[in-house]
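Continuing from the previous page of notes. For each protein in this section, the sequence appears first, followed by its structure tokens. Read the first protein now.
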Amino acid sequence: MNMPQILNYSRSRSTMVEQIDQETIRSECILLDTLSQGSVAIKVKLPDLEIIEAFGKFQRSFQAECNEIGTALEKIIGVRVGPGMLKIIPGLLQEKTSCKQLSFMVEECCHGVILAFTKDTLLETPAQLEGSIKFYQQMVKKNIRLYNRCAAFAKGSKLVEGIDGLE
């Protein structure tokens, strides 16, 4: 009897955000999977959320293009984290590289910056389930940029159920 070949694949992704000083936030996305290992970080100037520095490196990747990403990351310096960034960032990066993972990782860094500003609001979450669901729905209604930025606020989640105008 022939045994089928089974592909073994795992992925771990983590995004960390830290406030360096009163005017600067640093966000880093680390990706480790069976085929790739890399990290990308951005520094963002407050209060306008402008990317002032971007750097990263892939230790290994199934895409040869991902081995040289430094010059591509220079293209996003000056971009503001906020509306329109999901179209602007891939367009700028594609001018220098076809590394698909790079755009994804930069966007994750930006989403981390946005979500970092919600932490104080999250401390006000009601303890009861019913109240907390309504609380999160109101939070997304007030800041539509939160929609689809994490699993909790993704399409199909109870936390965004019934909110008009999300698509």
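Done with the first. The second protein uses the same format. Note its length before scrolling.
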Amino acid sequence: MILQLQAVKAIALSLWEKVLPFVVKHWKILLILALSAALFLKMRADYKAMETAYEARLESSQAQLEGLKEIHKVQMDEMAVLMDALLADLDRLEEERNRARDELAERHEERIDEIEREWSEHPEGVAGQIEQEFGFEYVE
């Protein structure tokens, strides 16, 4: 066992004597290679972390989009209900306006008939009303 240990030690020492001059001579290149390998490994780890963050952000955005679509659907349904109510109110107001217009036209016709009847019965009284109402004198 001691012999094997001595053999391993001799081989390691021989290897060290061969490697050491190479390392001393080319230390800059070896350092650049080691730093490049470390940089490459760090870049891969950062890229993987960035990719994971991107996928998480994508899933979050997708969930937000689905939520916004649901909110939009609810708003559109509410808007449709409001639009129906608005149209019903508009129809009701239009009917009231038409009814009021008809009543006004009917009262206008009644007033014209009343003035014509008064004119035929008492032309002087109507002429006085015209002078009083409009401020000009009636001439025959």
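What the second structure shows: The chain has a mean pLDDT of 90. Residues 2-131 form one domain. We return to this in next week's lecture.
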